[in-house]
Specification:
By secondary structure, the protein is an alpha/beta fold. Belongs to the UPF0065 (bug) family. InterPro entries: BUG, Bug_dom1.
């Protein structure tokens, strides 16, 4: 079962119906640090991607808020490389109890793509909270002959391997959203990977591909300018664009994929630290600079605590291994 919000919206994206989980955390931090005042020193927030991107922005907002409220420095450190694996490994290898990780769904995907990623997200990280989630949109050029998703689906089924789609690269979440459609919808789509989201969007606009699976930040300006149309939303609910149907409305087996961002602690994050962080971050849930900045990139602020994040990870880590294997994506 692919990742997605249940239709009654009571469980998180990434939680299959047959594997409902309510665990509070994926791992337990070292009890030797339990009695220490935290934070007792500067805290790093590692971002495993380049500065200025959609993963970096919330991390810097969070760092500023925590530094102001807790009276200790919170410093963002960008450690990009290997699809996020370099930065994730840096957070996992830290044993100082003062290292956080702000990452994307890559933390659940990398173990499916790499034989030895150097970390086990199920045991090496302490969930703190989801910070934001964003839909993935299936888009076409405005003059595309596909006027709706049903027409797109019918063509793909009638002519296997003929309908093409672009993505920002092999193994990215947007690519895997299409692979879930391929598996659950019994369609054979032609994948044309590009080096990043911008070239992928450009390929749609140039007519190099029939369609693209892209994030809102790349396509909303083109949709609003009348250069692109969204055929479907890969989430389970009609988020962001209420008039755009979900894939699951036509393919019931498709349970939704979203881009998401989350805050973790290293394995030595002291007990109680996650709860402290949530108390300080709670005011950002509504009417804050974080909600404003996330809305600008088509994302919804979450900050719903460790339980939904733990459940999401327990569901998605094995799920992506299944999807990657079914898609025949070679592991590095």
């Amino acid at each position: 079962m692919p990742p997605g919000l249940d239709r009654d919206a009571r469980r998180p994206i990434g939680l299959p119906r047959r594997a409902l989980l309510t665990g509070a955390a994926l791992t337990v931090a070292s009890p030797s640090l339990a009695q220490d005042a935290w934070p007792g020193r500067p805290t790093r927030i590692i971002v495993p991607f380049a500065p200025g991107g959609t993963t970096d922005i919330p991390a810097r907002i969070i760092a500023e808020v925590l530094q102001r409220k807790l009276g200790k420095p919170f410093v963002v450190e960008n450690r990009s490389g290997a699809g996020g694996a370099v930065g994730i490994r840096a957070a996992v290898q830290s044993t100082d109890g003062h290292t956080l990780l702000h990452t994307t769904s890559a933390v659940a995907v990398v173990p499916a793509l790499q034989r030895d990623p150097g970390f086990d997200p199920m045991t090496d990280l302490v969930p703190v909270t989801m910070t934001a989630a964003s839909p993935i949109l299936l888009v076409v050029r405005e003059d595309s002959p596909f006027r709706d998703f049903l027409a797109y689906l019918a063509k793909a089924r009638a002519e296997p391997g003929k309908v093409s789609f672009s993505s920002s690269g092999i193994g990215t979440t947007v690519h895997l959203a299409a692979e879930v459609l391929r598996a659950r919808g019994r369609v054979d789509l032609l994948h044309i990977p590009y080096r990043g989201s911008a070239p992928s969007a450009t390929a749609v606009l140039a007519g190099e591909v029939d369609s693209g699976f892209l994030s809102p930040i790349e396509v909303l300006p083109h949709i609003r300018a009348g250069r692109m149309r969204a055929l479907a939303n890969c989430a389970l609910t009609r988020t962001l664009l209420p008039d755009v149907p979900t894939i699951a409305e036509s393919v019931p087996e498709y349970d939704g994929v979203q881009l998401w961002f989350a805050l973790f602690g290293g394995r030595d994050l002291p007990p109680g630290a996650a709860a402290m962080l949530m108390r300080e971050l709670a005011p950002l849930r509504q009417g804050s600079v974080l909600t404003e900045r996330m809305a600008e990139v088509g994302a919804e602020t979450m900050l719903d605590g460790p339980d939904p994040l733990a459940a999401r990870m327990r569901a998605e880590v094995p799920l992506w291994k299944t999807i990657v294997e079914a898609a025949g994506i070679p592991r590095e």
